[in-house]
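Today's session is about reading a structure prediction critically. Students often jump straight to the picture, but the first step is always the sequence itself: look for stretches that repeat, for charged clusters, for runs of hydrophobic residues. Only then move on to the predicted structure, which in these notes is written as discrete structure tokens rather than atom positions. Here is the chain we will use throughout the hour.
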Amino acid sequence: MYALNTIIHRLRRGCETMDYPKGEAPPLPDRHGGALRLDAAKCPDGCRECLPVCPTEAIAQTGERGTTLDLGRCLFCAECVKACPHGAIVQTGDHRMAVRRREDLLLGSPGNEEVRLAEALDGKLRKLFGRSLRLRQVSAGGDGADEADLNVLGTIGWDIGRFGIQFVASPRHADGLVVTGPVTRNMELALRKTWEAMPEPKIVIAVGAAAISGAPFIGSPEVKGGVGSILPVDLFIPGWPPHPLTILDGLLRLLSRLEEKAPTGPTHGPG
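Below is the predicted structure for this chain, in token form.
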């Protein structure tokens, strides 16, 4: 009788997994704000209002490139948005931020006001991993936030397994290494050993600002400043932490499993 009641209950609940990516993406929470956009043309010479408010020095001014914003160091606190008197930095409400190259997270250069979204793996790797990707996750000094949002992807509402993506316990069963945290000195050896235990071919995915650049611990002698200083990275997913939708979007782009859709979130003005 218990088993029958369980089946009846599940039938009444129906499917609780979101329609995305076939349907529209769920909106980001208002407090999230999504990706940032930098229009360096709006920055007058000598204006430095946004520089001192950034806790990770993600915003810089140089004579050659003018104002730049590094989303790989950004904590998305939006203090720069509030501080900018010219509306040069705005929140877009767009969850899409994952890139293949580290330099694509550096905004502000001509023609690079917004993130250049990740392209798919090459044909051979896409054929190998496109419908079956096994990932081993390593928290290399993470604070638990990035790890929690990765765990969300395994819940019934997201069900990342429907895309053939699964997290595995052994690196010997893994196709890819997912790294969170700034890679502390105590975790460097464990990370290297995990990578070496994985069979070829293999990929590396950096999730969160800490794994990308070491933020907010940049400059600390106790961290390596991100996984890129140790291993070759194939996908960078910015955020502190990245929203689960941002992580899923990056993975699906990497596997060429995503049809391009316009973002559903609102564009936020300055302040």
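Discussion point for the tutorial: Confidence is low (pLDDT under 50) at residues 265-271.
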